[in-house]
Amino acid sequence: MRSLVHLSDLHFGRVDAMLLDPLRELVHKLAPDVVVVSGDLTQRAKSEQFEEAKAWLDTLPGPQIIVPGNHDISLYNVFRRFLLPLDRYKRYITDDLDPVYIDDEIAVLGVNTARSLTFKDGRVNKEQVEKIRATLSGLPKEVTRVVVTHHPFDLPKGAEEDDLVDRAHMAMHVFAELGIDLLMAGHLHMSHAGNTQARYKISEYAALVVQAGTATSTRGRGEVNSFNVIRIEPQRIEVDRYGWDSVHNQFQLLNTEKFMRSGNVWTEVPDGMMAAGI
Asked: What are the residue boundaries of the Calcineurin-like phosphoesterase domain, all occurrences included (predicted)?
């Protein structure tokens, strides 16, 4: 089994500082195999915000798969936005915009969906999708395949359709060919887990989608600050959601959702069925 801690939308520059130490301590206690951060490390892509984000991320365990979000591109500095859109991200965080972690059980691939030509939307292109194909080529079938983006490939109820990553349908048909199991994203500040079957209707394929809320931002959009822990086995994935308890000043386990794979289709399993070993 492998475990991933899934953090998103940190928004340094608009963080609740009270959450940083308890979150770091809990992540260490959880001892994940990989820490995943799905974008928006900063609020306005300022140097000091990237420095703060980097200093805090360096206190977390590794390896880490980190991708940028739309907030990690300068908003008001037009020159920097269009000519040097991710210069500060690459300087302070990492110059690898498509990070990869692979072992004998999981393959976790980060994909940059942040673009300078739009203020908040994101996009995946054919070159990125083909790079995923090349990276996964030759991996054993039993390796669980994970793609991490900032912008989501599917949406929870109540989300705006514009929040869906552009060219999602193109990418999803390739993901079906490659047997991508899990899509991890942020951006919405909303927690969600489900599958892609209803939106994409690809025969005999449905990936699991896991959306993280904001771990540390003051912009909660009606949700408490939260993050996910994902436990991966070849035919089974469990998603634990942790949320901030302001009474006890700590993150508490809020709920667990369980999914199983049949062929290339991931579906949620009711607690009773899982307990019965079905």
From this structure: 4-190
Q: CB burial class (10 A; 0-12, 13-18, 19+) of residue 254?
A: middle
CATH number at residue 224: 3.60.21.10
Residues 6+ apart with CB under 8 A from 249: 18, 22
Of residues 219 and 138, more confidently modeled: 138
User: Can you list the alpha helix ranges (DSSP code H) found in the chain?
Assistant: 20-30, 47-57, 78-83, 87-92, 126-136, 168-178, 197-200, 271-275
- The residue written with tokens 């920097």 in the block is 80
CA–CA–CA angle 56, 61, 63 (5° rounding): 110
pTM (2 decimals)?
Answer: 0.93
CB 101 within 8 A of CB 139: no
| 126-136 and 168-178 helices, crossing angle to 10° | 10
Q: For the residues 197-216, what does the mean pLDDT come to?
A: 96
164 phi, psi to nearest 5 deg: -65, 140
Instruction: Note whether residue 274 is domain-resident.
Output: no
Number of residues assigned to the chain: 278
User: What are residue 102's phi and psi, to 5 degrees?
Assistant: -135, 130
What tens digit of pLDDT does each residue of 233-274 get? 999 999 999 999 999 999 999 999 999 999 999 999 987 655
For residues 118-146, give the mean pLDDT: 91
Strands (E) across 125-249 are located at 144-148, 182-185, 192-195, 208-211, 226-233, 236-245
* Residue 181 maps to a domain: yes
Residue 257 covered by a domain:
yes
Q: Tell me the residue range of the domain where 166 lies.
A: 2-268
Can you tell me the distance from the alpha carbon of 274 to that of 278, in angstroms, rounded to the nearest whole number?
A: 6
Is residue 277 in some structural domain? Answer: no
Contacts of 244 (CB under 8 A, 6+ apart): 19, 224, 225, 226, 250, 251, 252
Number of structural domains found in the chain: 1
